[in-house]
Amino acid sequence: MKKFFPIFFLLIIIVLFVSCGKEEKDDVYPEIKMDCCGGFPLNCDTIERGTTFTFVARFTDNEELGAFSLDVHHNFDHHTHSTDPLPCEFGPVKDPLNPFRLIKEYQIPSGLTSHLAEVEISIPADADPGDYHMMVRLTDKTGWQTLKGISFKVK
Amino acid sequence: MKFFATAVVMLMLSFSAAFSQQKFELGGQVFSSESKPLAGINVRLENSSAGGVTDKTGRFTLGFFPEGDYHITVSAVGFETQKVNVTLKSDTSLKIILLPAVVTLAEVSIHGDYHNYRRSGDSRAVEIVTDEFLRKNLSGSLMKTLDRLPGVSSMSIGSGQSKPVIRGMSFNQVIVAENGVKHESQQWGADHGIEVDQFAVERVEVIKGPASLMYGSDAIAGVIDLKQSFVPEPGETGGDITLSGQTNNMQAAASLGFYTRKNQWWAKARFTAIDYADYQIPADSVEYYSYYFRLKDRKLRNTAGEEKNGNIALGYISGKFNSTLFVNNTFSESGFFANAHGLEIRNSQIDYDRSNRDTDLPMQQVNHLKMHWKNSWQQTGFTHRLDIAWQHNNRKEFSEAVEHGYMPKPSDSLERKFVKQTWSLAYAVQNRESAAVKLSAGVNAEHQHNISEGWGFILPSYKRNTAGVFLLGETKPSEKWLVLAGLRMDAGSVIIEDYFDWFLSPVDENDTNRIFKQRAFANSPDFSHLSGSAGFVYKSGSMVLKTNLGNSFRLPLAKELASDGVNYHMYRFEKGNPQLKPETAWQLDAGIEINRLRWAAEVSPFIAWFPSYIYLNPTSAYYEGLQIFNYTQTEVMRAGGEFHLHYTILRELKIGAIGEYVWSQQMSGEKKGFGLPFSPPASLLLNLSCQPVTKGVMSDTWISVDFKMVSAQNNIVPPEKKTPGYNLLNVGAGSTLKAGKQSLEINLRITNLLNRRYLDHTGFYRLIEVPDPGRGFQISLRMPFNINSQKP
Hints:
The complex is a heterodimer. By secondary structure, chain A is mainly beta. Chain A has one domain (29-154): Immunoglobulins (Immunoglobulin-like). Chain A has one helix at 4-20, and strands at 31-33, 45-47, 52-60, 65-74, 102-107, 114-122, 130-140, 145-154. A five-stranded mixed sheet of chain A has the order 2-8-7-4-5, with no helix packed on it. A three-stranded antiparallel sheet of chain A has the order 1-3-6, with no helix packed on it. The longest helix of chain A is centred in the first third of the chain and has 17 residues, at 4-20. Chain A starts with a helix and ends with a strand. The mean pLDDT of chain A is 84. In chain B, the strands form eight sheets. Chain B has a 22-stranded antiparallel beta barrel. Chain B has a five-stranded mixed sheet with strand order 8-13-14-11-12. A four-stranded antiparallel sheet of chain B has the order 3-2-5-6, with no helix packed on it. In chain B, β38 (626-648) and β39 form a beta hairpin. Classes of the chains: A mainly beta, B mainly beta.
């Protein structure tokens, strides 16, 4: 009986002790800023097909940026929405014939807490015009991910 | 207090003054069927105010009474109520044996009932829940109903589905069993509830700790065993009708139960239908990534659903041989919040707001069929048990067909379909109850076959074979000590099939040739594991002390071993790891319980070490545009515990408190220093309950107020978000109305009375920042009926 109590209290003390041993850890999401630094395309922008445009955004993180990806797909069925509070005016729903599509990953040089991303994207002249959607995904080294959805038009 | 004592003395004086004739003492002792004295049993003398509660040795005294015939009622939660008739001619000491019951009639008493009796026979932390608790706390889904138990929380998927969380662990780290047979569905999915009829559950036993010893793989964090152990008396025929309604999601539920017994043959059946509409949250809109979902009438669109369940049990019972065939079928259909598909914001042409009762896309449909043949027989003092079970789980998940990544628009809306069949066989033998060392040994084997279909790949088809043997011993070296120990050996193999995309994608960025990409590779790894458990229970007076050290394991899932594809629900690329070893855990549990007549206290801390926790690690890299999540194994430490206090202020008025806390930390790997996903924050529940003594048509009346304070959860890991703290007020009340032999049980509940807007850290929709349900009123009516209760 008397032997039992020390075990019991030791366990409680261990529980309390380990729960106090807090380590510093990164729990901050990276940020995607486009309202600065000539960010493009902005929500509801229009891009001409057969041309090349530059995606521009400022990425920041408290510790270290990881990587980002761009995903451009048609939104002819209006299935996706931008993450901006302002809705854009969509064209009529239609079936895709030769929609433009881009899925690509990009590394960010290591050790950066701020990075200005500039990516050249060319839209073929024969791509379907209409409503498109661009998903920007950004991670930091820890694995936190931030998304940004942009609606734009190709004409 | 002083006033009370004085009143009692006055009363006694007035009694002795009024009766001058000779009196005899009436008392006795109450035992369990195993001849253990039972404490805290209510003993009441009918047509009199005399009554009491048994002490730790099971003794009670009712007082001194004149010669005559007396009727005594002996009752406690979890035990069959006994009526004893005595003819008092001299001082009498009765010996009463109580049998454990399923249908409980007595008041909810905190100390010394079946609960404690069962708990003090197990060195692990165990919680027992009766059908009465289930009825009083009835929620939209079973695990939400059990949420109130210390150390147990739930992961809600909307208002009608939930899955269990024991001390912060869920998914395949917790077993849900029905009558001892592991329920096999698609437990790995955060949006998959358990497919069980909550109205058919008669008793729940929760083991909060490693339980591989009896249940094999997956019982790492604990077991929730749902029992249907009620057997009708010979010649008895009856049943009940239960109706329930909820205002928040306009839920209507009806359940009809029926039972009958003729000599040794008995049967029971239950049919349940539940229908619910979209649930209401205390907000006009939900903000997720700076986008506002505007809600119509504060209703979360497309979260409606329905459930249809049927349960039949046929049994044969004799002293030597008992056999039961359980056949259960549950069907559920429920919608997912329309404005997001998993984590992605989704627009749709569907007019969701035309009705809040229909389920549009996205939605899930699950049918679970289970047949279980349970046998036990006695031969030359040995008890044998044989269980044969077959389960068929058919899950379909539908969502709007849209193109994604390189996937073109699919031709239908069937995103995922899983058909999982499980065959299991278990045999165990136990030596005599009277033996110095009670031994039980057993073998079991299980075969599983899971077929995946649909256009959204997440899990390859696989087969799984497992088998195990165990030996368990229990001994009582003295009246105060109980020592338990056991060993188990398991072996198994997972046979994973290849999976190829049904559409073409470029080989890689620089090679634009298009191929059907392989997403899972055929593989058939073998596993084995030796697990064990040892512990003791020390009982002295009103105190119980427990310690248990256990080792448990979980075989890696096919998904964890072999998936190599996009999870379109969570928008991530999940990469399996064929090198994974079984996940193992060592857990040290302790418990101290003190049960006094007026108060009870319990503290149960634990500490657990996972040398090889299987963790889905979010990396910083991308593949096919999506974030890569790798299955890895890390070392994890977890600790925490619960406490439980009760104090009886007056006979009718009780206060109580339940606190729980879990801490976890990854000790190695890329997320070293981080916690684990879905960790419930610390919480404290304060309860005030009153059971006024009512006369006339009303009986068993109760009123209960729960105030739950939940702390913020800041110990998170990607891709989670911090959740702020909150508090909730829930109120319940109930009574049983009697007219002649007919009774009607009414229970009322108001959940989230203050209509607080909060995010439950373990809720499914908190990922997209959708708050939990707002205020809801619930009423449930239960009418038992007895067609024929003649005893042969």
